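// run 5 | inverse folding | seed 20
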């Protein structure tokens, strides 16, 4: 069993490390605002070690909002959205604690985070399966054929295996669509989270989407906590 306090603390540790890793990358980029990302690196580490958590989450959320406005939206897609969602929900949990609000309000804020993560997988599968290109396997062929990520250059040959990519396409869609059912049992959920983590890791290795791994992993304690509350 994992209680609310332990689950939120695990999320904070993993999110803090994920944000620190993202920010560290920017310190070595010539056109990046190094001062902003140096601040986010410090804030991420403070969040991970559990110092001044409420104000740290508040400042992190302000910097995230500023980056979103500057880049006209999430510049790193879904991982940025999940990171902001986690910052909002965790901040809400801590504000409820600091204000001595009833425990159920902390549970609502943290439960909302978990539900949104579950829906993120389901909606990703839904968007794919209603797309004829995905159902035929062509979408994944195009991903390997035209991806601009440097890591993909050595993988162009995968386009010569359309049947394999067809099977992979359906495997991804089915997994994402049935992901909510994993909440029915804790052991099933653990297996689903391991598969999901491997999926994100594969995307990191194949396409360089390394940020997706750590941010989604940071949310997994919330799903384990939710499963215990509901079932």
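// decoded
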């Amino acid at each position: 069993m994992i209680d609310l306090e332990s689950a939120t603390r695990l999320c904070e540790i993993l999110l803090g490390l994920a944000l620190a890793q993202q920010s560290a990358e920017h310190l070595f980029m010539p056109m990046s605002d190094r001062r902003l990302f140096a601040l986010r690196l410090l804030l991420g580490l403070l969040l991970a070690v559990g110092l001044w958590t409420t104000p740290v989450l508040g400042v992190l959320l302000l910097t995230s909002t500023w980056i979103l406005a500057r880049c006209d939206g999430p510049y790193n897609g879904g991982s940025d959205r999940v990171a902001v969602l986690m910052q909002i929900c965790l901040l809400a949990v801590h504000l409820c604690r600091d204000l001595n609000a009833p425990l159920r309000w902390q549970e609502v804020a943290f439960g909302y985070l978990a539900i949104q993560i579950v829906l993120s997988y389901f909606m990703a599968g839904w968007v794919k399966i209603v797309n004829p290109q995905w159902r035929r396997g062509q979408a994944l062929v195009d991903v390997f054929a035209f991806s601009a990520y440097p890591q993909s250059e050595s993988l162009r040959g995968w386009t010569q295996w359309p049947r394999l990519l067809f099977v992979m396409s359906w495997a991804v869609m089915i997994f994402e669509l049935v992901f909510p059912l994993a909440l029915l049992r804790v052991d099933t959920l653990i297996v689903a989270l391991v598969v999901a983590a491997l999926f994100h890791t594969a995307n990191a290795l194949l396409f360089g989407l390394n940020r997706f791994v750590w941010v989604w992993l940071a949310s997994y304690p919330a799903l384990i906590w939710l499963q215990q509350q509901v079932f």
